[in-house]
Records
---
Amino acid sequence: MTVVSSKEFATRPARYYNLAQNEQVLIKRGKSRYHLAYMPIPVEKYPEQPILEPDENLRRAITAEELLDRIHKDIHDKFRNR
C-alpha cells in the first residue's frame, strides 16, 4: 500500500493511477484518507461517443450567437429606459 498526500497526488496523478493497477493507493488530505482503486470497465458498457437522439430540448435550443444577440438587446433596453 502506498500513502501519498493530496498535493503529491495532484502533481503526479498519472503515476498513482498506474500504481493503483498493482497495489492500493491511499490519498491523505488532512485527517481524511481516500482510497484510490483500479477497476477496469468493459468498453461495451460505456462507448466512447454516446449516441443521443434529437429531442424537444435540442429543437428548442439556440446558438451562442442568438443568445448574445438577445442578451445585448435586453441590456440595451434596460439601460435605455432609465
---
Amino acid sequence: MRRPDAGRQARPAGATLDAIRPRTVPPPAAQEAGEPGKRRRRPGTVALVLAVALVSGVAGGALGVVATRDGGLFGNGTAAGSAGDRTAAAGPTGTGAAGTPAALAGGQLQQVLGSVLPAVVKVEARTDTGKATGSGVVFAESGYVLTNAHVIDGARSIGVTLSTSEPLRARFVGRDLNYDLAVLRVRRAGLAVARVGKSADLRVGDAAIVVGSPFGFQSSVTTGIVSALHRVVKVPSGENGREDRELVDAIQTDAAINPGNSGGALTNGAGEVVGISTAIATNGDSEANAGVGFAIPIDAAMEVATALVDRKPVKVPFLGADLDTDVSPDDIQRFQVGNRAGALVSAVRSRSPAAQAGLRRGDLVVRFGNQPVAASDQLTVALRQAEIGVPVPVTVVRRGRELVLRVTPADQPGR
C-alpha cells in the first residue's frame, strides 16, 4: 500500500512516480513493538497481490521506495464486530439524502467546501535529499496542524502554506509512528479551523470528499463514497530494520487520493473532517490513484493529536497473540474448529495479556467483548478499540468446545 504523503515539485508531463515511503521526523520516537527473531505472520491480512504506498510526493530528489507485498491487503469482510450492520448496506445514494453523493451536486458541494478548504494546508518538509510535500488539517485556533508522520520524515525544516497562499514556518510538536500521525504548530492569528465529525457515524455509501495537495496542487478536491470501513492494511515503514506497519480500522474510499494528499482531509457530506488521507492501493507499477484509498478515522486521530499536544504518551491496546491469516484445511482438522468462522491464534507470547488469560495456540476467537469476530482483521480492529486495563470477555472455540476467557489489554510494549 502506498501513502499519499509528501510530494516533490510538479513533474513533467508523462513522468512516472514510484511509490512513496512513510516519513518520520527527528527527534526519534519510541520504538514500535516487534518480536525479535524469526519472521512471523502479521495479523489481519489476506492474500491479495497489491502494492500499498504512502501518499506523499517528493521533489528535488529520488522518490521513496514502493512497498509491494503479496501478503494481502484486505480483511475477509468490510466490518469489524458489531459494526457489521453499518457496512452491510450502503446509504440511499440515489435519493438525494443529505450526506450522499446525489446530494453533493453544484452549489451544495461548494457550500460544503467553503468550510473545509480554508482549514486544509500544504505541508513542505525539507530534508537532506530534497523537499517532500503533503497536506495537513488545522484543528485548533492556537495553530495546531494534524498531518501524517511519514510526510515529515527526516525533515530539517517544515513549512505550511495556507489556502490563501500565505507561507508560514511550522514547528514540530510530536508524532506517533504506530498511527502514522504528527502534529505541527504555526503562529498565525485568525486561522480557519476544520469542523471535526465522528468517523464512528460513517456508513458505507456515504459521501466522501478528499481535500489536499496532490502532486503539490494545493486545495484540490475529489469526491466519491465511503467504499468500506474497518480495513486493516499493511503500509511500508520506510525505516531501516523496522517491520511494515498496519493501518488499523481504516476508512476505504474511491475518492481520488494521490501523492501529496497524505495528511489531508477526508470529509463527509456535511463538510466535517472524518478522516486523514494516508495510503493508496496500487498494482505495484504506479503510485497514481486506482480508486482504493485509505484514511485514518478522525476519532482515533484526534485522540492521538490531543495526546501529542499535551505531551502525553499515545497508548495502543496490546493482546500478545499472533493470528493466522491463512487457515488451511489441516489447521481446521488439527484444531477441530469445524465450520466456525473466527480469528485463529497461531502463537501466544509469554507473559502477555493473552497468556495470562489462558489463550492458547489453536484457539479460535469468535467474540471479543460484545463484538462477534469472523476474521482476524475484525479481532485486530476490536482490540484497537478496547480500553487498556479493562477486562474483556473473549469467547474462543478450543478443540470443539466453546470457552469464555477474560483478557485485560495492556499498553503495547516497546513503543
---
Amino acid sequence: MATNTYFSQGTTGEQDLQQSLVNEQIAMFGKDVYYIPRTLVKEDTVFGEDTMSKFEGAYLIEAYIEDNTGFRGDGDMFTKFGVQIADQCTFVISRTRFTAAVDDNATLIVEGRPNEGDLVYFPMANKIFEIQFVEYEVPFFTLGKQYTWGLRCELFQFSDEDFETGITEVDAVEVNYANAISVNVAEGGTGDFVAEEIVTGGNSNVTATVKSWNSATRQLVVYNRSGIFAIPETLTGNTSSAAWTSATYNTLNNQNSDSEANWQIETQADNIIDFTEGNPFGEFGNKGSSI
C-alpha cells in the first residue's frame, strides 16, 4: 500500500523554511572557518594519492562545531618519534551556504560537495584539519531533504604540499615546515635576494622559493624546489634581479628541522659500508661454464 496522498512528506516551502532555520542556527552558534580546496598536480591512480598537491584558495564559511566539549581523537601522545597530536573534529556546514561560498567560486575535485582531502582552517584554535569523511545523511531526510554536510576531520599532517591560499597563518605552514636547503654562492654576485621571491637556475631552469638570504655569509636558504640546481650556475631572483653563482649545497641537510639526521646518517654510513662495491652483500651471476 502506498503512502497517504493527503499527507505531505515535505513541501518545497517547508523545506526552504527548514533550510533557512538551519542556516540561521549555524550562523548564530557556529564559528568562522576557511574551506581550502585541494588541487591535484600529479595524481597516482594506482595508490589513489597525490604527493604534489596544491592549495591555492581559502573561502570563509560559518560552521557549527559538533564536538562542543573539545577535540576528539587520541589527543597528545608521547612517542619515540616525539609528541604527536591526533585531534579530531566534526564541522557541520549548510549545503546552500557551501554552494554559495565555496562551490560557486572554486574548482573542486568533485563538484557540488565538500571533498575528502580538502582542508578546513579553524582560526580560533589556529589549527588546520583535513577532511577524512563527508557525512551526508545526518540528520536523516528531515521533511524529505538533507540540509547540511558533516565534515569529519583530523589534524592535518604536512607533507611538502604547496600553499598559496592568501591566509598568512596557513601559508606559513609551507615556509616553516617544507624541506629547505642552504645554497652557498660564490663571490662576485650582485644584488640581494628577498624572501618569498622565486629564484631560477640559469642552466638547469630549476626554480625555488627564497626563505632567507645572508649577504655576509653568502648563504641562500630556499624551499619548494622544482629539481636540482647545477653547480655552478647563475641563480637569478625574479623580483630582486639579484644574480649569484651557486657554489655548493646539500639536499640532505634540511634547514627547517632540528630533529632530522639524514646528513649525519649519510656521513656515518660511509664509515660502515663500502658503497663502491657493486654488491656489498655477496656475489651473484654465472661464474662458470654452466649455471
---
Amino acid sequence: MVDFARGTPVTGSLDVAWNHGMPGRRGEREPKIQVHYYDEHTVILRQSKSVHYEAPFMFLLFGNDRALLLDTGATADPERFPLRGKVDRLVAIWLAKNPREGYELVVAHTHGHGDHVAADGQFAGRAGTTVVPKDVAAVRSFFGFGDGWPERTVTFDLGGRVLEVLGSPGHEEAAITVYDPWTGVLLTGDTVYPGRLYVSDSAAFLATIGRLVAFAATRPVTQLLGCHVEMTGRPGRDFPIGATYQPGEHALHLAPAELTAVRDAAAAVAGRRGVHRFDDFIIYNEAGPGDQLRLMGRGLAHRLRLTRLPGSVIAGGRPARTPGPARRRRTRAPATAARRGPPGPAPPGRGRTRAGPASACG
C-alpha cells in the first residue's frame, strides 16, 4: 500500500516540453496524446493540436483503491483520439508496480463543456469504471455536496489519497476545482489557466475565486494546473482561437499567488462586460456577441493566413516566460493584485524546457 499521507506534498516534475502543434501538415506526425509523469502516481496528458485545436490537458491520479481521470478531452472518435487505450495502458503499468485486485476507475470532469467530456463514451462498459455525468445535479450528488453546493468543500478518497473538491461555478455551472494534498497541486480546470477566462456568470466567478483564495491560504498549494494554454510568450497576448501551432507558448503551471491576481483583476472589471487583458490571462467578462465575433474573426483571419502561407510560423513565436505579476494591458491592474511567489517544487520556467525521462508520447 502506498502511504499518501506521509511526507506531503511530494516533489514532482514539470520538466517537460509540451507538444504545441506543428506547422502545416507536419502536425499529423505529432503524437495524438502526450503523457508526462509528474510523479509515479500522477500523470498529465495533453491532446494533440493536430487532433483538436483546444489541446486540453487531462489528469490521471492513482490511489490505493481507484484512479481518477479528470476530463476526457475534445474528441470522441477513438481512432483519432485513443484516450481509453492510453488510460488502460497507464493503469496496467501502475498495477504492475502496485498489484491489487478489483482496481476501479472514476472518470469525472473539471466542468461539462464539450472539449472536456467528448471521449466519455470510450469508457462505457469498461469494468470497474464510473463515469460521472456532466450536469450539476450529478456532480453534486456523486461528490456529496448536498445542499452545500458550491460553498462546501468535500473530500473524495482514492484509497489513502484523499482529494478535496470545491464547487467552482462562474465559467460553467457544474465546474469543480480539485486539490491533491499528495502533490499540493490545485487543478483549476478552465477557471484559472494561462488563457482566455470565459466568465459566464460574473457574480458566481467572483465568489468562486474568493473561495479558492481563502482555501489556498490554508493549504500548502505548490502550483495551479489548468486545462489549456492559450497565452503566448508575450505579456497580454493570446494565440488566435483555432490555432493548431503554438510555438513559444506560456508555461502550463501558474504560481498559487495567481489566484489572488485573478481575484483582484475580476473584481476590478466587475460590472464591465467585455474583454480585459492582463499579462498571464484575459478575462472575457460576460462577453457580448461583438466580442465573440471579434474573437472568431481573428481566428478565421489566422486560418486564412495559414492557407496563403503554408508552413509559416504564426503568432507568438517568442520564448515562453515565467509567469509574473498580473498587469492590465493599457489599463493598470488593481493595486491590491499580489505578486507571485515561488510555485513550489517545480519552479515555472519556459513553456518549452528540456524534457526529462518522465515524459512520453503515444
